Give the backbone structure.
Amino acid sequence: MAVPEPGAAACLDEDLAGALLQIEHAGRRRQLRCVEHDGGCRVRVDGRPALSFASCDYLGLARHPRLAAAAARAALAAGTSSGSARLLAGHDGELAALEQELAADFDAPAALVFSSGYLANLGVVTALAAPGDLIVSDRLGHASTVDACRLSGATVAVVPHNDLPALEQALAAAPRHRRTLVLVEGVYSMDGDGAPLAAIVARAEAVGALVVVDDAHGLGAVGPGGRGAAAAAGVGARVAVQIGNLGKALGSFGAFVLASAALRELLVQTSRPFVFTCAPPPPVVAAAREALAVRRDEPQRTERLQQNAARLRTALRGAGVSLHTGEAPAAGARPQALSLESAAAAVRSGASDPAPWPAAFASPIVPVPVGDDRRALEASARLLERGLFVPAVRPPTVPEGSARLRLTVTAEHSAAEVDAVAAAVAEVLR
């Protein structure tokens, strides 16, 4: 009797097993860890109690009783799903009110909520750029921005991180294109630094280019009153688009776009990630609205977050720990220390350029370079043994040779806890 040939699914599984083995041998197999919250910054990582420096819940709102109560009321009154895309039947007064409040709180003409940050980036870039357009994108942009550029069909120029001369060179091609976008981040998610927005906006304006700022980690966290990186640089009214996140500093889920009323309407009409995605569910919308109210009622949360962010950098440097510069080190090179305040030296800007990050900019993301993938994993494991949850980040999330410990600080950490993690990181890396 003939033995049947293996089916396509079986052949696929064999191929996938080989691919997974290659990832394993490279030391880059990732694990889904069970992280359970015990209150505040306390968690259990696979059952082990620890103090977390891994969360982007920057203001400590995700478990705030007011947000929980608002979400519960909304679930009881309106259910757990919007049940539809917004243009069909998923738009209601609560969602409209959230967008009005976002625009007011962040000093923008209009706002539009998306169901995730990834979708917001895809939606904005593909709505604004098409074949015949030019996109100039920072090399360290988020994966969603990279995918958006590919989907747009536009000509894409990727420039070295925060390299103003390279930006100027790329923008020289702007007159040959219908529209030019400059894509940067307010706070870079794996590097903790920011774009020198004042200098970038000036160069973009000189050639009629539009600046799009993905400020997922900045809006609600950095700048005066937490109004983001553009506000910190004094260019909030001069950037075309700011993209924020409801699931980080605002303790809920989803994302939002701050833009002109005309651009908001264009996104409603043409943005495929908006048109063809279910609206956020009522409990999520209610929690986001309450988060904005808590921010207004408790401004000390933003102040404490920024104080903790500055304190962590100071404590790490004081313990002899190098901070990440925002670019992968050359092969065999030892990472060099670069503070947020002295980052202007890494940006080859002219003497007339303003400082890249004003005093109001205090990023809650603090990466510590390690370099070797396995050493980064080992350092993270040793910190967890000490009751500190500090993830290791490896390629392809970050460039080759730039594995790191990525610490995130929140408003809920105490000064003693910030000092303790800095001392522990220094000891482990020695």
Q: What stands out?
A: The longest helix spans residues 300-318.
